[in-house]
Amino acid sequence: MMDMFISELIGALFQVLLFSLIPFIWWICTARKKESFFKWIGLKRLKIEGKVINTVFITVAAAVVYGALSSLFIRAFEGEITAAGSAYAGKGVMALPAVIVYGFIRTGLSEEILFRGFLLKRFSDKFGFANGNTIQAVCFGALHGIPFGIATHNIGVTIMLTILPGAFGWYMGWLNEKRCGETIISSWLLHGLMNVAVACLSL
Questions:
Q1: 3-state secondary structure the chain
Q2: Could you tell me if 64 and 144 are in contact, meaning their C-beta atoms sit under 8 angstroms apart?
Q3: Among the listed residues 171, 37, 190, 25, the one whose alpha carbon sits nearest the alpha carbon of residue 104
Q4: Rg value, the chain, Cα
């Protein structure tokens, strides 16, 4: 299991660097004299605006609805598509450290840097929040839906597994920018928890 953990950690760090490459180059060319890279992509202190209980309730409800719909859809195509972290299925609790690295770093951190930290903020600056958030959500959904569509040759799978993550990606963008002080910490935690929870169901 230690080999699995080390392999996952190395892969996760590589993916974070890969997903950060374009944002980092963009920052060097456009914003390095204005603010630090971490602040520019939203890696800064989480500050919940408004009533905390409302934000928590809405977030839990969104996560439950997304998780339930995704689970139902994946089960409907069982054998053709797999859930996040399915590589750890049947590995038991000893695989938990690797699952945490997978959920929070390989997928959670790398995708949040690219989609909510880079695309959302840059498109929002150019086209306003509503348009910027929609664009990043469509890109986020497509990243999930298109590979499943290619694997299954099923347009319905492509559409549904683009819409579901896309809608959740839109919510995470809204959560960051409108409720949590424009940080990606909130969506990173939510994204990581969702991925770890799904993977743990198959351990």
A1: CHHHHHHHHHHHHHHHHHHHHHHHHHHHHHCCCCCCHHHHCCCCCCCCCCCHHHHHHHHHHHHHHHHHHHHHHHHHCECCECCCCHHHCCCCHHHHHHHHHHHHHHHHHHHHHHHHHHHHHHHHHHHCHHHHHHHHHHHHHHHHHHHHHHHHCCHHHHHHHHHHHHHHHHHHHHHHHHHCCCCCHHHHHHHHHHHHHHHHCCC
A2: no
A3: 190
A4: 17
pLDDT-derived band at 175 (thresholds 50, 70, 90) equals: very high
CA atoms within 13 A on the CB side of 90: 1
Q: Which residue has the tokens 């919510």?
A: 171
Determine the pLDDT at residue 83.
66
Percent of the chain exceeding pLDDT 90 equals: 71
Residue 51 pLDDT > 90: no
Q: Are the C-beta atoms of 115 and 169 separated by less than 8 Å?
A: yes
Amino acid of residue 199 = A
The tokens describing 44, both together, are 């800064």
